[in-house]
Structures are given as structure tokens and as C-alpha cells.
Amino acid sequence: MILRREQAPDRPEILALIEAAFPEPVEARLLRELFASREYLPELSLVAESADAEILGYVISTRAWIGDTPAVGLGPIGVLPQWRRQGIGAALMHASIDAAREQGEPAIVLLGSTDFYPRFGFVPADSVGIASPDPSWGSHFMALPLPGFHAGIRGHFRYAEPFSKL
Ligand SMILES: CC(C)(COP(=O)(O)OP(=O)(O)OC[C@H]1O[C@@H](n2cnc3c(N)ncnc32)[C@H](O)[C@@H]1OP(=O)(O)O)[C@@H](O)C(=O)NCCC(=O)NCCS
Q1: What are the φ and ψ backbone dihedral angles of 96, each rounded to 5 degrees?
Q2: Partners of 123 in the beta sheet?
Q3: Cα separation of 91 and 77, whole Å?
Q4: CB of 115 sitting under 6 A from ligand 1
Q5: Is 45 helix (H, G, I), strand (E, B) or coil?
Q6: How far apart (Å, rounded) are the C-alpha atoms in residues 157 and 165?
Q7: What confidence score (pLDDT) does residue 76 get?
Q8: Cβ of 21 below 6 Å from ligand 1
Q9: How many structural domains is the chain composed of?
Q10: 117 CA from centroid of ligand 1 (Å)
């Protein structure tokens, strides 16, 4: 398996993968809009590809804001059902975190499972001063502060525009 950046010709296969990975069509719909949005960050969006060039997993990142400070919003992430629990999701997360850190991003923020993301260092976003767009998300709204993070970066979190249509 290799990890590489997503490229435009990959998108039909990625959309099919995300449709297979999630029980509802909402994530694939969101992804289609994120690809078309100006907040898309292709340099932080990665595919996991098998030796015979099948895409097994994908993670997208988009531009987001903490108050007025640009940050990264991560997700959706998905792995084909038959390829789960083999480390692909973790590999995508580590690579995407490394890329964001190298780019000098101050933080990655996401909404997701409290069983999966804390192992990568994610903590409840409000514990580092990042206010959720929806308080009902509770501890599922998480952030990973990177070396560029500092106490002056705080406030309300805003996702890329397509998330507001969910
Ligand atoms: C979540 C997902 C991307 C994980 O991919 P994966 O390739 O199976 O993950 P990994 O094999 O790297 O698993 C890493 C660890 O996370 C655990 N894990 C995997 N999926 C998990 C989940 N849904 N909930 C909790 N823990 C999970 C694994 O047990 C493993 O732990 P271990 O190393 O202690 O055994 C994949 O299950 C998926 O596509 N799910 C459907 C889409 C989805 O729900 N995405 C967003 C989740 S918020």
C-alpha cells in the first residue's frame, strides 16, 4: 500500500469509496461539494492505494477557521469495509497530520468518534479554547493542536462553507 496526494482523476473512485464506507449518502454529497469548494486543501488530502492501484482509503482536509485564524478541518475519512482494521485509517491520519504540521498549520479540528481520534492526540476542542459550531456535538468535537498553536488562537470554529449546508 502507498499513500499519496489525491488527484482530480481519482475523484469518481473516491466518491464511490465514501459511498461504500458510510451508511448514508450525506458524506459523499458533502465530499462532492468540498472538491468543488475554494476551501479544498488537496495537499492535505490523501489516498491509500493498493499495489494494483485500487483506492482503499481516503481522507480530505479543508480550510477552516478558529476565530480569525486559518486552521484545518479534517474529514470525511473512509476505508473500504473489506479493508478495515488493517491500519489504513491510522496511516491516513498520521500522514495527514504530518503534512499539516509541515505546512505550519496551527491545529486540525474534526467531528468524530471519541474511540478513534484520541489515539492521534485529539482532545475535546473546548479544552483548548475552540468553541464548537454546535454545542450538541459535545466531546465528539475534537482538536489536535500542532506546534504553531498558541493561547491566542481561540474562539468559534467555522468549517468550510459546504459543511453549513448539512
Ligand atoms: C474509521 C475508519 C476510517 C478506520 O479505518 P481503519 O483502516 O479500519 O482503521 P485502522 O485499522 O487504522 O484502526 C486503527 C485503530 O482504530 C480502531 N478503530 C477502527 N475503526 C474504529 C471505529 N469506527 N471506532 C473506534 N475504533 C476504531 C481499530 O481497532 C484500531 O485500533 P487498534 O490499533 O487498537 O486495534 C473506518 O472504520 C471507516 O471507514 N469507517 C466508516 C466511515 C467512518 O465512520 N468514518 C469516520 C469515523 S468518525
Answers
A1: -70, -35
A2: 143
A3: 11
A4: yes
A5: coil
A6: 16
A7: 98
A8: yes
A9: 1
A10: 9
Residues 68, 153: Cα–Cα separation, whole Å: 8
Q: Is the peptide bond before 76 cis (omega within 30 degrees of 0)?
A: yes
Residues of the domain holding 151? 2-165
Kindly state the average pLDDT of the residues 141-155: 97
Alpha carbon of 68 to ligand 1 centroid (Å)? 32
pLDDT at 165: 86
Strand 130-131 to strand 69-79: parallel, antiparallel, or no bridges (unpaired)? unpaired
Q: Which three cell numbers stand for residue 129?
A: 479554547
The average pLDDT across 36-56 equals 97
CB 78 within 8 A of CB 22: yes
Pairing mode, if any, of strands 69-79 and 55-66? Answer: antiparallel
Query: How far apart are the two ends of the chain, measured CA to CA in Å?
Result: 33
Please state, rounded to an integer, the average pLDDT across all residues of the chain: 97
Q: What is the CATH number of the domain that holds 77?
A: 3.40.630.30
- Contact yes or no for 144/107 (Cβ under 8 A): yes
Helix axes 26-36, 11-21, angle to 10 degrees: 150
User: Could you give the CA distance from residue 155 to residue 165 in angstroms, rounded to a whole number?
Assistant: 22
Give the H or E element holding residue 66. strand 55-66
Question: Given pLDDT bands bounded at 50, 70 and 90, which one contains residue 53?
Answer: very high
